[in-house]
Amino acid sequence: MNSAISPIPPLAIDYPAWVQTVVDWERAYTTDEERMRLAIRMSRENVERDTGGPFGAAVFELESGRLVAVGMNSVVRLNNCMLHGEGMAVMMAQSRLDCFTLRSDDGPAYELVTSCEPCAMCLGTTLWSGVRRLVCGAGRDDAVKLGFDEGPVFPESYAYLEARGIRVVHGMLRDEANAVLELYRARQGPIYNG
Question: In 10 A of CB 191, how many CB atoms?
């Protein structure tokens, strides 16, 4: 092992180029189904364009449906194990809003919509992000079937979120979301956390 330490390059987190051509930033996503379909689209585009894993997410203003940010798994693309779809969506939302939390007493409430139930790390991200609602598509078991290690996630994990004021919805368009996981399996995408 080389004992010399290389300079640390600046950390750059960005979207794949295709995001700007796919996402309609101006429209309001007024239903849970529309919001989930956007998260699923992020996951599908990510797989089909070979830019990452089969997980997508988005942050919306809860009441208006205004899109704040999207996220897609960028672990392999950006060589960073922290860049799950939910984390990307939250980081980009906080950057866009110029804040460290999505919770405020005088601003809108936000929600995180994700194409698959979050892993243990992303449940922590959800808790600390400031969102008031979490909407999930595919189930944890669907990701585990592909070989992803979702970490210590228990029914109590979701009960804890609820107790902290984060409403949780499971199984929104689960079959559509799971179809992207199956596409990833068929394309033999890398399992990057085992």
Answer: 14
Which residues, in sequence order, are CB contacts of 71 under 8 Å at separation 6+?
42, 56, 57, 58, 59, 84, 85, 86, 87, 88, 89, 90, 91, 92
44 occurs within a structural domain: yes
User: How many domains does one find in the chain?
Assistant: 1
What angle in degrees, to the nearest 10, is found between the helix axes of 85-97 and 120-129? Answer: 20
Q: To the nearest whole percent, how much of the chain has pLDDT over 70?
A: 98
When the pLDDT of each residue in the chain is averaged and rounded to a whole number, the result is 95
Range of the domain at 130: 26-186
Q: Which two structure tokens, joined as six digits, stand for 149?
A: 């290690």
Both tokens assigned to 80: 């960073």
CATH number (domain holding residue 54): 3.40.140.10
Q: Scanning the structure block, which residue is given the tokens 């794949």?
A: 16
Structure tokens given for 167: 């409403």
Asked whether residue 192 is assigned to any structural domain, the reply reads no
Residue-wise pLDDT for 21-49, tens only, equals: 999 999 999 999 999 999 999 999 999 99
**42 — phi, psi (to 5°)?**
-60, -40
Residues 67-124: tens digit of each pLDDT = 999 999 999 999 999 999 999 999 999 999 999 999 988 999 999 999 999 999 999 9
| Domain assignment present for 116 | yes
Domain-located, residue 18: no
